[in-house]
Amino acid sequence: MLLRAYLLTGMVAHKLVWEVLKRHADSGPRQPFRLIKAVKIAVLAGLLLQCFLPEILPIARDPFPLQAAGLCLFTAGLAVAVAARIQLGRNWSDVESATVLPQQELVAQGLYRYVRHPIYLGDILLVAGYELALNSWGVLLVLPLIGFVWRKAAQEEALLKGSLPGYDSYLQSSGRFLPPVLSLLKRRTATRP
């Protein structure tokens, strides 16, 4: 019961951060209600509802190891997604709009120093961890989510490459979802005396 309360609180906190920060940022022109927005709402509602339902076809008979791993992934994903959203600040636009804002600047510090899409990464970890913590086969739904996010990230990068100064070189120094290991090693050896 405590686990489910934690998961539910984390999901609600995640959504509240988005809504509060969205109100403080000019996220571009208001977009009409689109299919992608409807899908986001349906997925969120389904995830929240899942916290109240009993386990149906659980993955494991002894869920403790799975729940512990899921809890770690969920917490890490929540922390990454929220921190990245705060670090992006006014330079954020909703996934549905995918626009470059009038005063948008390149954010290349914090998590963005290493990863170009830490919000997407955090959300994937959050959902995977949520499903594992609930001992649910819904974790398999993360696979199409990864495909969607990969495609969306590539589209965003193409848009930003053509319109945001410095983004081209930023592509070379950061990873899409994971930090580029060789670049990190080079930076570390370059900063040593």
Summarize the structure.
This protein has helices spanning 2-24, 35-50, 64-88, 118-133, 142-163, 167-173, 181-191.
Would you give an account of this structure?
The chain is mostly helical and 193 residues long. It has helices spanning 2-24, 35-50, 64-88, 118-133, 142-163, 167-173, 181-191. Helix 1 (2-24) packs parallel to helix 3 and helix 4 packs antiparallel against helix 5 (142-163). The protein is globular. The relative contact order is 0.14.
What key attributes describe this structure?
about 190 residues, about 60% helix, mainly alpha
Mean pLDDT: 86
Estimated helix fraction: 55-70%
> What is the succession of H and E elements?
HHHHHHH
Shape: globular
Biggest β-sheet strands, sense, barrel:
none
What is the terminal separation in angstroms? 53 Å
Question: Topology of this structure?
Answer:
Elements: H1 2-24, H2 35-50, H3 64-88, H4 118-133, H5 142-163, H6 167-173, H7 181-191
Helix pairs in contact: 1-3, 3-4, 4-5
